Amino acid sequence: MDLASRAGLYLHVPFCRKKCGYCSFYSFPPLAVEIRRYLESVRLQMRQLARMPAIQALSFVTVFFGGGTPTTLSVKELAALLADCRQLFSFSGEAEITIEVNPGTIDAQGLQQLRRAGFNRLSIGIQSLDDRELRQLGRIHSSQEALATIQAARRAGFDNLSFDLMYGLPGQTASDWQETLDRALDLGPDHLSMYELTVEDDTPLFVQIHQGQSILPGEEEVLAMMAGIEAEIDRSPLARYEISNYAVAGRECRHNLNYWHNGLYLGLGPGAVSAYGGQRMTTPADFSAYCQRVAAGQEVWAEVEQLDTEAAFRETVIMGLRLLAGVSIEALRQRFGLGLTTYYGEILDRLLAQDLVAIWDGRFFLTRKGLPLANQVMAELV
Questions:
Q1: Cα separation, 362 vs 121, whole angstroms
Q2: What is the distance between the alpha carbons of residues 286 and 271, in angstroms, rounded to a whole number?
Q3: Cα distances (Å, whole numbers) of residue 195 to 97, 168, 177, 180, 226
Q4: How far apart are CA 370 and CA 382, in angstroms?
Q5: CATH value at residue 91
Q6: Smallest Cα–Cα separation from 356: which of 341, 374, 342?
Q7: Order of strands, sheet of 60-67, starting from the edge strand that comes earlier in the sequence
Q8: Of 226, 260, 294, which one is at a domain's C-terminal end?
Q9: Which of 36, 89, 110, 219 has the fewest CB atoms within 10 Å, measured from its CB?
């Protein structure tokens, strides 16, 4: 596969109307002057990169506006940024163009304008359809606003909708989660991303739990939630294709598939990651530092990592194991010149004997037993 002809373009918008208590991503509520400075800086970064031969060699098939909350910017500003991407970079075929939206930050008219601007996939940050849980998470929307956003998106012509949901929330029971999941499936999503809540250090939620103000559900309750996902998905048009992601056939997220195949991608904005030319680069996860570097014409990357062949091979194996289809052993050999069984040897033999991984029809993948233990398996292979 020619990776350069199937690259992904990511644009990070580091703004939110309000920072959620569980969020550890780089984002903050902006002032008007910071929005203007961001738009100037990211456009300047685009122009600087577009002149580089290594970027000119890439052809993009996906675009993803993420954050933060991209719809903190106005629809006019978002449409202009997408137009700039199309003008400055090379695209091939019908690109998948995704934007993350949160209910409460976009209305029906705005969704219509996004669709006319060329966005053809929405990732809607619902998280829960229980108002108590939404308030506890610090979300700015209600369950009714989430439903209204979905309905308005369909009317606006979006036929590729993804919902983000979270389980394992403070005070949540398996029956609470089941109700949210059932309601979400009734809405006919084309794609679902479902994640167990991870409590990160240095977040308000971490402090609340540490002080006993919030209590997470126990392990058995979380396992019951996971079992509920499996049962409901089996009765739906969706199929699991990645550890936390489910889709109607043909609606798998092409942008994220490129990440999981360890492909090439370009990241714009503060804290964004790029991978091309055998390197992985990260811009500063600091708004002022990012803007200053771009304005001064300095090297924008705060970190640059050069991956040798073996490190890139291991990373491709681990990323690919997130997919239920796993990785092609022959594709690995062609790309890196390394054989899976020879390279991992006794480690692979042990994992196979434990029935945590399997090799079948030329592919290496996690078994049903191995999927819940994916992190432990990947730690063995890294």
A1: 33
A2: 7
A3: 23, 9, 12, 13, 10
A4: 16
A5: 3.80.30.20
A6: 374
A7: 239-242, 245-247, 191-196, 161-167, 121-127, 91-101, 60-67, 7-13, 265-268, 273-276, 279-282, 303-306
A8: 260
A9: 219
Distance (Å, rounded) from C-alpha 335 to C-alpha 124? 35
What is the amino acid identity at position 233?
A: I
In this structure, is residue 303 part of a structural domain? no
According to DSSP, residue 31 is labeled: P
Residues 36 and 132 in one domain: yes
CATH number of the domain enclosing 368: 1.10.10.920
Number of domains in the chain: 2
> Is residue 297 one of the residues assigned to a domain?
no
Q: List, for residues 25-64, the tens digit of each pLDDT value.
A: 778 999 999 999 999 999 999 999 999 999 999 999 999 9
**Cβ count near 243 (within 10 Å):** 17
Point out the domain boundary residue: 229, 260, 291. Answer: 260
Same domain membership, residue 246 and residue 345: no
Q: Is residue 91 part of a domain?
A: yes
* H or E, element range at 294: helix 287-295
Rounded-to-integer distance, Cα 194 and Cα 184, Å: 11
Peptide bond into 320 cis (omega under 30): no
Kindly state the tokens that stand for 5: 């002809």
Token output for 126 = 């619902």
Dist. CA 325–CA 315, nearest whole Å:
16
The reported pLDDT for the residue numbered 351 is 98
CB 98 within 8 A of CB 255: yes
111 and 180 housed in the same domain: yes
Per the structure, the complete domain to which residue 174 belongs is given by: 3-260
Specify the residue for token string 């109307």. 17
The answer to the question of residue 102 being in a domain is yes
Listed in sequence order, the residues at least 6 apart from 139 whose beta carbon sits closer than 8 Å to its beta carbon are 20, 102, 104, 127, 128
- Tell me the C-alpha distance between 242 and 224, whole Å: 20
Give pTM, 2 decimals. Answer: 0.95
